[in-house]
C-alpha cells in the first residue's frame, strides 16, 4: 500500500512571520491509526534478521511474496545475501529506531565476520501481515568503506544520550520533529554554519560519525569543532548538495533518522552516504549520529528510490 505524503500547516499571522526562517519539513505522512506491527514487533523483526544472519539460515523469516532485498546497494535474493554466510557473531552494540506508523525500523548494529568487526545498518519494512516486504543491509568494514571507523565507540551499549527517554510533554509531534531535524540537511546544502540558519541545537549538542566525535563539547578534530552550531560547513561545498532518500521517525524516543547522500564525488571518486539520526525533544536537537558509507555514484541511493513526498533541502 502506498503512503501518500502531504503537509498541511495552518498558521496564524504571528506564526506565519516566525515560520519564514524555518525549513520546510522534509516529509509528513498520513499513516494508519492502528499499526500492524507495534514497537516490540518491529524490534523483534530486526532481531529475527540478525539471528538469521548469525545462524546462516533465512528460511524461518516471515517474508512477503514481494520482498525486495539489497546488500550494500546491490539487489539480490534473500538466500544469496553474503552476510548470511559471513556473519559469525553479534556484538553488544545496537541502536534501534522504530517507526510504528510507517511499519519500518532501522538499527545500527555491530557484528563480526570471523573475528573482524563490521558496522551493520539494517532497515526493515513490514506488510499488514507482519511479513518482511523490504530488507536493506549496509556494511562498513573499514575506513576505506566509511572514511571514519572509530570501532572502539561500538564496543558497548548504544549512546546514552540517544537512548534518553523524554517525557511525553517533551516530544514534538511527528511533523514538527521532522521539521526540526530538517535544519541539518538544509544547513549542509545551503549554509556556512548551522547557526546561520537558526538550527535549534541544545547547548550540549554533539555529533558522532562512525563512532568519532566530530562536533560538540570535547571535540578536537578541527579548530572550532567544539561548537557544533558555529562549525564551518565549507567542506560540504565540495561534497555537493544533499539528497534525502528516506525518513524514519521513532516518535516515542524522539529520534528522526534520514538516509542522506551527496551529489558530488568524494574521496576515491565515490559518494558519501549516511544514515544520520537526530535526537529531538524540547524543541531542540540534542545529538546527531551518522553511520557512513561510501558508494560508487551509480549506487548513491543504495538501490532504493527517493520516498514519495520528501521535500529536498
Q: Any idea of the CATH class of the largest domain?
A: Alpha Beta
Give me the secondary-structure category.
alpha+beta
How far is the N terminus from the C terminus? 27 Å
Order of helices and strands: HHEEHEEEEHHEEHEEEE
Overall body shape = globular
List low-confidence stretches. 1-20
Fraction of residues in H or I helices: 10-25%
| Share of residues in strands | 25-35%
Overall mean pLDDT: 88
For the record, the CATH architecture of the largest domain stands as Roll
**CATH T-level fold name of the largest domain:** Nuclear Transport Factor 2, Chain: A
Calculate Rg over CA atoms.
19 Å
Return the domain count: 2
**Total strands:** 12
Number of helices: 6
Major sheet strand order: 2-1-6-5-4-3
For the largest beta-sheet, the strand count, sense and barrel status come to:
6 strands, mixed
What does this structure look like?
- By secondary structure, the protein is of the alpha+beta class.
- The chain folds into two domains: 39-142, Nuclear Transport Factor 2, Chain: A; 161-299, Roll (Nuclear Transport Factor 2, Chain: A), CATH 3.10.450.50.
- The protein has six helices and twelve strands.
- The chain has a six-stranded mixed beta sheet with strand order 2-1-6-5-4-3.
- It is globular.
- It starts with 12 loop residues before the first helix and ends in an 18-residue tail after the last strand.
- Residues 1-20 have low confidence and may be disordered.
